[in-house]
Amino acid sequence: MKSKKKRPGRPRNRSSNVGLPPGTMVYIGDQKMDAVSVDIIDYNQSNFTELREASVERCGELAGAPGVTWINVNGIHDVGLIESLGGCLELHPLTLEDIVNTGQRPKTEEFPHYIYVVLKMISFNETTNQLATEHVSLILADNYVVSFQERRGDVFDSVRDRIRNSKGRLRSMKADYLAYSLMDAVVDHYFLAVERMGDRIEDLDDQILTDPHPNAMQEVHHLKRQILGMRKAVWPLREEIRVLEKCESGLIRPETKAFLRDLYDHTIQVIDMVETFRDILGGMHDTFLSNVSNRMNEIMKVLTIIATIFIPLTFIAGLYGMNFEHMPELKWAWGYYMALGVMLAVGIVMTVYFRKKKWL
Amino acid sequence: MKSKKKRPGRPRNRSSNVGLPPGTMVYIGDQKMDAVSVDIIDYNQSNFTELREASVERCGELAGAPGVTWINVNGIHDVGLIESLGGCLELHPLTLEDIVNTGQRPKTEEFPHYIYVVLKMISFNETTNQLATEHVSLILADNYVVSFQERRGDVFDSVRDRIRNSKGRLRSMKADYLAYSLMDAVVDHYFLAVERMGDRIEDLDDQILTDPHPNAMQEVHHLKRQILGMRKAVWPLREEIRVLEKCESGLIRPETKAFLRDLYDHTIQVIDMVETFRDILGGMHDTFLSNVSNRMNEIMKVLTIIATIFIPLTFIAGLYGMNFEHMPELKWAWGYYMALGVMLAVGIVMTVYFRKKKWL
Amino acid sequence: MKSKKKRPGRPRNRSSNVGLPPGTMVYIGDQKMDAVSVDIIDYNQSNFTELREASVERCGELAGAPGVTWINVNGIHDVGLIESLGGCLELHPLTLEDIVNTGQRPKTEEFPHYIYVVLKMISFNETTNQLATEHVSLILADNYVVSFQERRGDVFDSVRDRIRNSKGRLRSMKADYLAYSLMDAVVDHYFLAVERMGDRIEDLDDQILTDPHPNAMQEVHHLKRQILGMRKAVWPLREEIRVLEKCESGLIRPETKAFLRDLYDHTIQVIDMVETFRDILGGMHDTFLSNVSNRMNEIMKVLTIIATIFIPLTFIAGLYGMNFEHMPELKWAWGYYMALGVMLAVGIVMTVYFRKKKWL
Amino acid sequence: MKSKKKRPGRPRNRSSNVGLPPGTMVYIGDQKMDAVSVDIIDYNQSNFTELREASVERCGELAGAPGVTWINVNGIHDVGLIESLGGCLELHPLTLEDIVNTGQRPKTEEFPHYIYVVLKMISFNETTNQLATEHVSLILADNYVVSFQERRGDVFDSVRDRIRNSKGRLRSMKADYLAYSLMDAVVDHYFLAVERMGDRIEDLDDQILTDPHPNAMQEVHHLKRQILGMRKAVWPLREEIRVLEKCESGLIRPETKAFLRDLYDHTIQVIDMVETFRDILGGMHDTFLSNVSNRMNEIMKVLTIIATIFIPLTFIAGLYGMNFEHMPELKWAWGYYMALGVMLAVGIVMTVYFRKKKWL
Amino acid sequence: MKSKKKRPGRPRNRSSNVGLPPGTMVYIGDQKMDAVSVDIIDYNQSNFTELREASVERCGELAGAPGVTWINVNGIHDVGLIESLGGCLELHPLTLEDIVNTGQRPKTEEFPHYIYVVLKMISFNETTNQLATEHVSLILADNYVVSFQERRGDVFDSVRDRIRNSKGRLRSMKADYLAYSLMDAVVDHYFLAVERMGDRIEDLDDQILTDPHPNAMQEVHHLKRQILGMRKAVWPLREEIRVLEKCESGLIRPETKAFLRDLYDHTIQVIDMVETFRDILGGMHDTFLSNVSNRMNEIMKVLTIIATIFIPLTFIAGLYGMNFEHMPELKWAWGYYMALGVMLAVGIVMTVYFRKKKWL
Predict the structure, then answer these.
(1) What ipTM is given for this predicted complex?
(2) Which of C232, D125, E75, E352 is geometrically suited to a Cys-Cys bond with E36, CB 3.0 to 4.6 A?
(3) Global pTM?
């Protein structure tokens, strides 16, 4: 029940890994029923071939052939399939462990014949205000790229379309540009998530100024944690791209580096926006607290003033309610009206005084 | 409606870019109706020519000719014009993307035959207390400078005048000094914005000390966000100028570097002022809160004391309002006056006590 | 009594060391009665020998022989035994001092013929919410590893099993891989501790939202201190592994370094989780305070409103309780009902007003 | 009126500079009426000459002659004089701009034949609690030093005396030692300002503990801003002296560098004191707030308890003030005394209860 | 009177130094009456000589002779004696200035023939909760060490004993090991001070949880300042030892460097403990405030509830105290008991309601 709530940045059941030899692949994400499928697109400047539900052997063949091969694996919970793919492409056991470890933070690691990149895909659900992160791995080798997603998604569709339609310079570039394009697609989706989150924050900001309800505060806390999760995905990415740009193995060609710098700029922009939201959320906490205490103070002040005005009046009434035998005022014909007059005068004087003091 | 409010640092509709190939130019600023116009000033030590509404071809010709050429583009929403200018001057597609991307943060990027500089022009509207930032790009090549503004403005007028009137050393220097002069003009305008903001902050400070109204607090929050926007424009500039100064391509001549150091100092001065304002605004929050709670406490204290003085008196009145048949005091001739006297005594004793305790 | 409480990060009786020459071994942990025992496992790819309660001389012999020797010392309070082992293996006096100094923070130190690594084992007791840290030392020499634990534990059992069953690549690797495996086992147990702590924090978070009791706050403070203790164990580890990876003595073989990088990633993951918990705990403090003051304010508001509604009514009652002889209303047949009606009207008007103002 | 208040770190009318070519000298300090005067001291180990109100030409002559020449310019608002002096000594236009720009922050800049140092002189006025900063520039060339002050002051008198009386090693050293001595004199005066400020802070601390008046809080805020101004003068100085010490041009002789390190230590000491004051002032804010709310709470508690004790008593009195015909107690002979007794008992029980609960 | 209070980190009368030439020795500590005495221990592996109240000439002789000479100066207020010692050992004037300047922060400075080390001795007085710092200087030359203390103390006794009794390796090592031993003795005493402070903090923590009295808060503030003073002594030490370890002059022998690394570790341990205390004290402030406001809120809540229950009852009593002629209830035989019953019912209903709402 309770444990169904997911906290960003908290891998589930990571402890199931304890005691296993390093390099053991343990999928620690949510259990999934979908079959894992492998799609391949193989292209060069003039042709392209597309294969759905390809076999691991076919992957090995195409990866070895000339032309850029993009192997896209949808789903990482089939440990056996990923292991055989890893064997076929000669991936290091630790790379395989990281591919299925959804708790792995973004990083770039260079191996002799490939570069391994971990990314986080991010989407923001506007109805639940929940940030969903998905673990994405990229393997960039000399003439192929392997991408691993947690589930079949539409983030890479734009890249697929550009290959199919020969749009942009993608078809005329090598595997490194393909890897860059995939990373760029992921970062582009960050903007979507950040903007949606921004809209929610703006709404919340208006709400807090007009009607500071405790629920709004809980939502601020909730969004703060979402922002924390976002930062954890985006901040390491910055360093990661820097590492790729500085990479001296021939896997990243010089003409691609300008594009990596551009991607770096986009990442900084996302970080800037995320940090701005963080500042704004931090400020909203203060605004909320001072608004609430302001309202409360105003209420208490008004109520206390009402009580304060009536207390002396009640005293006067009590005074003439005393039962002494010798109270001359009680006999006066106009005594009652005088008493009423005194009360009215006291009430007016106090009200005027409080108003002059700007208490009312 | 709501979405008309602009938040500093938040590009609008950046997500419209998602899925497009990198290097695609998408103007994401406010939609504008004005035609984009290109002005050219070509000068050397002895002559100068000025051209308004020049064609792209003319730009290419003059840029290639000896003499320093300053091409000023007013407006960046005409993507086609900027693309053809970029083609004519052989600018990198990513540079063109950044020129029209108003969300791009300040940066300096070196390309083989030019340096690309992004700046933010800042102005502070004193009536709305709103900071307006404008995206400015500079291209510095060997003998020409291209500047891109979001709209025709008066910031560069002083530079234009100095060229026309041969004032200062501008006419006798090369393109790098022109680029420096343009950056210097932008930074000079920062001082104007910062000082105006400073005046507003001083007014607010006085207001908070004398009459702490919640609106003042909202303005403090508002100004804090403006300051955040300001910082985002100014902080990267510092790094940027440092990079230019250290730049080893021959595009920045040694004699210009002393001026860049001077510009660097000015930037630091702006940053200092901005940070001082930030500290002051942060302190104002505290001052406001303690002033408000002070006032509130004072009010509550006075009211509670009034109530506390009257409550025992009302009790005494109630005592003699009891209807017991055998209450000897009620029969006494001076009973009423004694009761009044006791009440007066109790009231005076309590007032004196509270005063002695410094509660009143 | 009081001194039985242990504070994380605070060595006990460290001052008993004052005035002793450096290199003097002083065990400053809790006094223990258990005998210190030494277990040895000696293995190569084909064979392995296991020895329980081995003598120091046997350690020296096996350490000198080919094949990887793992000497595991359970208990560090027998200073004499550790000294003779140190003499036999030619350890530096300062290393011996650090092995028994449970206050020593994690560090890596290179000596001519061995590397000395200090770690902290961590376990989290869910019933007492107490973090227990244990001081672990590793000596990595060319073909042996010595591990020192404060007490016999089960953390290294998984490594032992892997040696016995030839699981994974452990048996085919050298002493450096064994040392890595031991460190990996320790870090794997961090995940256990962190997850248990995380569960406790989640429970606490729910509790604070639904029923903010002061005890919950004290537990938050308590957990904050446990987190501080955790950080002190984990943060230096990061630097430590970095040092090992960069180590240029031949003791760490190149093929082991990829595994150290993997271990480094795991450490970063633990740090990330710990920092996330810290943020969450920090936020819980704020949530608690605002929840408590919210509840309190709500109560005070309702009570004050009740009082405010009754005070004018009581005044009216007091008015007609006055004993003036000439009060025409008192004679009216319907006077009493009119008074009741006026009171009812005043009560309703005030309630409606407060409701409209959203005070009720 | 209002604009007369000076904020530390905020140059006045800096915006008057906007649009002017760089290197244009604009004095932005307060307008001054005093004439600018130039004093010269020329000395070597055996002789010294002193000249008051010297002409610019004389400066040029002496600066060129052997022997150390110290040109002291009192006042920087006479832009013409400084420009002709700059021309005579071949100072860079940007140096001249910085000499008269009182908003320039401390820095060290190396030029081919001289080093330019900007300092801030600081004095603390104990009656107004106002920090006054003065802009000081030093030009250190091979055998002369030029110092610029905003007005004739006594800070450099000790240096003058040491030259006149051949005290210390000043007369036997070169121009770099003179420059060091002038900087040392400025830093020595920092101690005076800091100690005076420290006395004020200590007084304030006592006052806040004994009688927390809102005015004290405003003074704390005021002093915090003064400390901000102080930091801005002192922090960059640290870096500045480091740069001078590392300076590789022959202008700083090796024997002077030990003295610069000493000056560096003094600067660190000033910074330490300033930071300590900052911490203390920050803590005073907390102390003040908790003291004030403590006092207020105590008052409210006592008053509420008084009210709470009387409210049930008043209720009892009201009970027997009811006019029912059949109230047997009213007929009892001892009814009145019993009622009084019950009231007394209730009052005593409540007081005892509150005392036991430690509420009173 | 007031000025007798000492603030940590605040040198007294430092301003008396203003205007004096650099290198002038001014003792700025408390005025002392004790005579300054010089003790010498001269030793090698086989012999040792001890001299009390030695003359400066004897110091010079022994310092020049082979064998390690330790000159310990008790008291630094006799400026003349230190100057003549400095002349005899050829110390730099700035070193002498720093030896008597008790405001000098810890640092290490290398001179051609000696290394100068400044340390702070720290002791914590448990009755006054006051941290006392003492200025300690060490001069390490090739075969002698000079130590300067503010007064004769027992910190170095353990080192003296080890020389006398040939304990440890001290007698067989050179002057650098002696200097290390003295620094080690100082750092060992830090543990004493820190542990005493820790005990006090633990007591305070218990007190704040059980009985949050304002005095406890003032003590927390007081201890915070003591911690500040402690940090100022310990933090620079870390850097200092690092510098000594990296020192490339032959004065520090390689075999001593392992011991310096050990000392470095101890310093880190002290820093860790100090920082932990700082965190704990910071948390105590929050705990105190929330405890106090909790208690206050509880009191106010209970009192307000009592008042709220009685106010409607008093109103009912007032109702039947009205003097209308036609009030049928007054005539009813059971009217009085009915009124009492209604009051009881209202009281019970309200109490139950408040209890159900968990307000009581």
Answers:
(1) 0.74
(2) E75
(3) 0.79
